[in-house]
Specification:
Layout (H helix, E strand, L loop, with lengths): L37 E12 L2 H9 L7 H14 L1 H4 L8 E12 L2 E12 L4 H19 L7 E11 L6 E2 H8 L25 E4 L5 H6 L8 E8 L3 E2 L2 E2 L2 E6 L1 H18 L4 E7 L1 E3 L4 E9 L2 H18 L2 E7 L2 E4 L10
Parallel strand pairs: 6-11
Antiparallel strand pairs: 1-3, 1-4, 2-3, 4-5, 7-13, 8-9, 10-12, 10-14, 11-13, 14-15
C-alpha cells in the first residue's frame, strides 16, 4: 500500500477550488492576511415546519418550556460568535452585529432569518448560516416535547455583501443560471396569503415634528390584532461623546423611494402585515423624534418582527446623512475626514 497522503504533489496547484489544500493535498486554513479589510454582511434563512397545533401554541406563547423565540434568538447569536470553533477552517471574526429574526409564524411552521456583519478580511456567510441553523435547532429543542415530528429544512444563504466578489443575491443568481429555487416547499392546497400593496403615503420624509399617531393610523385595519411602534429619539451622547444637536440631511425622492422599496420587500415576505414609516431631517434637539416605524399584523409576534425588521432595514439602507454637534464641533458620522465649521 502506498504511503502517499492525498493526490500527487502539485496536482491541485491550479485548481480553482484548492485554496484550502496545500501542494500535497493536505487540508489547511487559508491565509487571509493580505486581503483587504472591508465591510462584510451575510443573510441566511432556515425553516422549522410543525403541526398547526404547535404553531398556534408558539404564536400564543403557551408552550411548556417558556419563551421559544427569545431562547432561539439568543442561541443563534451565541452560535454565530463561535462559528470558528464549530467549523474547522473558519477564521475567528470580530462580528459587529448579529441578528436573528422570526420573519413569519404561519399554520405549519416558523421562518428564521439571520444576519451577520463585520468589518474584516473574510466573509461572514458561515456565521449567518450557523446562526440560522442553531436558532432552528433551538426551536426544535424547545418544542420537541409537544411535536417530535417537526422538520428543519431550507437552511441556505440568501445574500452576501463585501469582499473581492462583491454582492450576491440568491434570486439574482437563480435567474442568471436558469435554476428554479423555490423559496418554500409547497405545504397544502391553500392559496398563499396575498401581500398588501404598499401605500405611498405611508412612507415619508419630513422637516416638521413627526406626528406619531398619524403614522400609526396608516396601519390600522379591522384584521389587525396588534400594532407595534418603534420611535427613534435623539439622545445626548454617541460612542462616549456628548451631543448637543443632531442634523439629518437627505434627498427627499431617494429616501421615499427606498422606504417604499423596503416596505414592498417586507410586506411580500410577511403577508398580512402593514407598514408605515416617517423619517425626520433637518436640525433635531435632544429628545426629538427622528424616525417612527409602525407595523400591524393579526398577532403580536408578527407585528413585533415586522417592526423590528423595518427599523433594521431603514437603519441599514436609507440614504440619510447624520451630523452630530459636540464639544469638538460638528462632524458627519462615518466621514471623519469631512469635519467642517457650523
Amino acid at each position: 500500500m502506498s504511503d502517499q497522503q492525498g493526490p500527487p504533489k502539485g496536482a491541485l496547484e491550479h485548481h480553482p477550488l484548492s485554496t484550502h489544500l496545500d501542494r500535497d493535498g493536505n487540508v489547511r486554513m487559508v491565509d487571509v492576511g493580505e486581503k483587504a479589510i472591508t465591510a462584510r454582511r451575510a443573510v441566511a434563512t432556515a425553516r422549522v415546519t410543525m403541526s398547526p397545533e404547535t404553531a398556534k401554541a408558539l404564536r400564543d406563547e403557551t408552550t411548556p418550556k417558556g419563551d421559544v423565540l427569545a431562547t432561539a434568538r439568543i442561541a443563534g447569536i451565541q452560535a454565530a460568535k463561535r462559528t470558528h470553533e464549530l467549523i474547522p477552517l473558519c477564521h475567528g471574526i470580530a462580528l459587529t452585529k448579529v441578528s436573528v429574526e422570526f420573519v413569519s409564524i404561519d399554520d405549519d411552521g416558523v421562518s428564521i432569518e439571520a444576519t451577520a456583519q463585520a468589518t474584516d478580511r473574510t466573509g461572514v456567510e458561515m456565521e449567518a448560516l450557523t446562526a440560522a441553523s442553531i436558532a432552528a435547532l433551538t426551536v426544535y429543542d424547545m418544542l420537541k416535547g409537544v411535536d417530535r415530528a417537526m422538520v428543519i429544512q431550507d437552511v441556505r444563504l440568501e445574500a452576501k455583501d463585501g469582499g473581492r466578489t462583491g454582492s450576491w443575491r440568491r434570486e439574482a443568481a437563480s435567474e442568471s443560471d436558469g435554476r428554479s429555487l423555490p423559496r418554500e416547499r409547497a405545504r397544502d392546497d391553500r392559496p398563499a396569503p396575498t401581500a398588501i400593496a404598499v401605500d405611498p403615503e405611508s412612507f415619508a420624509l419630513t422637516r416638521e415634528p413627526i406626528d406619531l399617531l398619524a403614522v400609526r393610523q396608516r396601519v390600522l385595519h379591522p384584521s389587525a390584532g396588534a400594532v407595534c411602534v418603534f420611535e427613534g429619539v435623539v439622545r445626548d451622547h454617541n460612542e462616549g461623546k456628548a451631543i448637543s444637536l443632531l442634523e439629518y440631511e437627505a434627498y427627499d425622492k431617494m429616501v421615499t423611494a427606498e422606504l417604499r422599496r423596503i416596505a414592498a420587500e417586507l410586506q411580500a415576505a410577511l403577508p398580512g402585515t402593514r407598514l408605515a414609516a416617517t423619517h425626520r431631517v433637518g436640525a433635531l434637539s435632544i429628545g426629538d423624534t427622528a424616525v417612527v416605524c409602525v407595523a400591524s399584523a393579526a398577532h403580536r409576534a408578527e407585528a413585533f418582527e415586522a417592526a423590528r425588521r423595518l427599523i433594521d432595514e431603514v437603519k441599514a439602507r436609507l440614504p440619510v446623512w447624520k451630523r452630530e454637534h459636540g464639544s469638538a464641533g460638528p462632524y458627519w458620522v462615518g466621514w471623519e475626514d469631512a469635519r467642517c465649521l457650523p
